[in-house]
Amino acid sequence: MTPYERLVKIAEAEDRTPNQIVELSKRHPSIVSAIRNGKKGFSEELAYAIANRWGYSKDWILTGEGEMKLHEAPKRMSSTDFLQKTVRIPERAELLPVLKTPLYARAGMGYTAYFNRPPEEQEWDYVPENKLYPGVAAEDHTIVTINGDSMEPTLLAGWEMLAYKLPEGLYPRVEKIVMLDYKDELIIKRLAKVDWQNNTITIQSDNGRMKVEIPMDEIRQVYHVYNIHNALI
């Protein structure tokens, strides 16, 4: 039995689609076509999520060997593991997939590698449509995690924030929080000034320790950080 046949068997048993089963692992549903075409098998994370949620044998999911269903449900994940490895299947159309930008993808080699991955190898989460910025498509949003103390007391380390891309050459109003794609790094600061005459912007931290002027032509992308996704510490 191929990995896709096992996926279909699980989906039929649970009265769900293969896409919904894959979404349990925080992976983009496009991975279903890769499994169906034999380009990919089950990842460890996907197998673990399905085993934990539905009580299937992880070994059977990965290899097809042994019993399909465990006689006893496996031990439930901790809440931390659940947040890291699974995502609630959307029951209604207003939940839309949004790309997550994890901390390791915020700078340097991690930045380049993560954004060059295919969608099925990136991290995703679901966001209610009414939490998306009005008039901006889900694919132009991202979920970014705050690190450090530069934005305290407004934003705390560990919070997940919603942000969206702005069209080239546009900025939100002064005093809004922005994320800048600047020198292969994504930095989150408050927009303090937009100087169109000198083609620079000034950003600053909320803790008062940093203020810097940046040439506009060195900024590859501007995001407006506008709402909380998860305020978990």
From TrEMBL:
Keyword Isomerase: no
Keywords noted in UniProt: DNA-binding, Hydrolase, Protease, Transcription, Transcription regulation
Residue ranges constituting the Peptidase S24/S26A/S26B/S26C domain according to the UniProt record: 102-211
Protein name: Peptidase S24/S26A/S26B/S26C domain-containing protein
GO molecular-function terms, A-Z: DNA binding; serine-type endopeptidase activity
GO biological process: proteolysis
SUPFAM superfamilies: lambda repressor-like DNA-binding domains (SSF47413), LexA/Signal peptidase (SSF51306)
Family annotation (PROSITE patterns): SPASE_I_1
GO cellular component, one term: membrane
PANTHER family per the UniProt record, alphabetical: FELS-1 PROPHAGE TRANSCRIPTIONAL REGULATOR, PTHR40661
Species whose genome carries this gene: Spirosoma validum
One Pfam family it belongs to: Peptidase_S24
Membrane-spanning segments: none
